[in-house]
Amino acid sequence: xxxxxxxxxxLAATALPERRRPGGGRPRYEVVRELGAEEVRWFYRxxxxxxxxxxxxxxxxxxxxFRALGSGGGEPAxxxxxxxxxxxxxxxxASAESYPVYxxxxxxxxxxxxxxxxxxxxxxxxxxxxxxxxxxxxxxxKGQQLQESFDMEISKPVxxxxxxxxxxxxxxxxxxxxxxxxxxxxxxxxxxIARTVTQKLGFSKASSSGTRLxxxxxxxxxxxxxxxxxxxxxxxxxxxxxxxxxxxxxKNTAMMRDTARKVEEKYFSNLATHVEFLPVEWRSKLxxxxxxxxxxxxxxxxxxxxxxxxxxxxxxxxxxxxxRDELVKGLQQxxxxxxxxxxxxxxxxxxxxxxxxxxxxxxxxxxxxDIMTGWNPVRLYEQLLQKEEEELxxxxxxxxxQRLLEELYITKQRLREIEERxxxxxxxxxxxxxxxxxxxxxxFCMGSPLAVFLALRGIRPGTSGSQDHILPRTICNRLLNxxxxxxxxxxxxxxxxxxxxxxxxxxxxxxxxxANPLPYEHMKPxxxxxxxxxxxxxxxxxxxxxxxxxxxxxxxxxHYGESITxxxxxxxxxxxxxxxxxxxxxxxxxxxxxxxxxxxxETGKDGAEGDDKKATTVGTPPLPHSSSGFLEPTVExxxxxxFELREGLVESRYWSAVTSHTAYWSSLDxxxxxxxxxxxxxxxxxxxxxxxxx
Length: 694
What we know:
Organism: Menura novaehollandiae
GO molecular function: metal ion binding; phospholipase activity
Structural class: alpha/beta
Largest sheet: 7 strands, parallel
InterPro entries: DDHD_dom, PA-PLA1
Oligomer: single chain
Protein name: DDHD1 Phospholipase
Pfam family, one: DDHD
């Protein structure tokens, strides 16, 4: 209830006799009184677009803070910022601005208090005009009865009614034809002429050029109109090229969040929790070489050079021993900062078993992987040195060589002991693998070159179908690699675990509108190249598990789903960061043998279309294999890892190669894919705990 100072919700007013608008709108009161907090609606505006209303829960709390601000008796009261939009933003009522909590944004988001609204659109009138109209309305009509019912109002059209009250504004004027019929007229010359003409022709002034206004929002704000609690947070990590546009990851994450909201409303609206996406902008805080690279860049073709510097350069920085640690620490610290900040603002998140997943793009996948596993090139160097020592010990040596080698061995052991004692005295962070403050539930890689990095670090296929071969389940529960078939930077991970998966097609991601899609875990493997010789003899066990490569039909690309060119439109600005030929230049699919190229099956009619040039294989000596050239296919992956977007109908091959690397953010197919895995796990755990309690 309202107190004397005017702050607080005037919800007691709901006890007054009330009536609804025609068509069952918001309750209205019979006597003109000050607007209740629930009738006022607050709005925000992003990117200079139209005003968007805050949900009821947010609007009521902003209004409460606003009334507290004005109740200081002359001195403005100190008011805490109001947390809004699922906790991602705060509103400073005094400055009428909103700003993000978890990331930096140069542009502030203006907020506005809506009291009077335009008929039809329910857009608020500008605050200055709104305040003047409201003040005039209360001065003239406060305490007066409103009409008994809306039927009378409908039966008596406004045409021909004279204004009972009028208010002149700077560019407009407002006429009250009755307490409940208020019209805004523009005082521009053209409007005056139009009004004169229409009046001479017998049209009413009110209906011809006036805009009807409504006092109080169409929908009452209630505290029940609040967002569901966040049960799962997703950190979105950018890749290369962010130096060129530091705000891009924030825009991309906003696209992904908006798309996920649409999917949540359609498929997961019955759940009481939701998934929140937070951008991890790690690049802009780093100094790296200062501007040394810029200073040595020739001026010719400067635009293209800048683009290459800001994208290709990140890969060079990452392979540089001087800057690699700075990149790793930059991302690790930002992930930990965001997690700590989120938990401090949502204390129940950890108590209720909230989960964390990471979505990484491009080079971000490699850096995230290295943070999670603690991989370090120094360790690789130490392993190589150890191997050299072992080889040295195995060959014949003179007595003098043996004596010196023993002395070296004793000295190294002594050095290790001294180092350990020193570490004990002084806690040092040197060579400690980076640690995250949370367990990663799912690691989604998008357009990821991780596989080629791992291959060049010496990882080779094994004999077990476990994810542990490349990423232990103790570190991350599930690894999922998403890519568009023409993304020039993306590589497959499955053939690094089991070699024969290079001839098994990636799982096709369901189209967003597919009715009753088959769950991913029930999808059987299909072979990429059935003309290859069989992977094994007619073994009954394997024949029942998967179709034989000699009998399987050629996998025709399913030409339906969301066209990547349509997706590309939303992220065309992102495509610039990779450049037309950049992907091909940096990763000309080296290390990818012709057998592992799904692109060679672009169409069912002609298997050799497109990438028919044989790629030279870099890297691996042949592994022990069966007579057919593949490892025994009786071994299957525990879980599939490679998931491929379906290609659209109309896209050109080369066009999508340019846009596909950045087209993941606005894809409804990907949003559904991510949420399917996250909600499925949450549902399984809820079901399990329910069974345990029974």
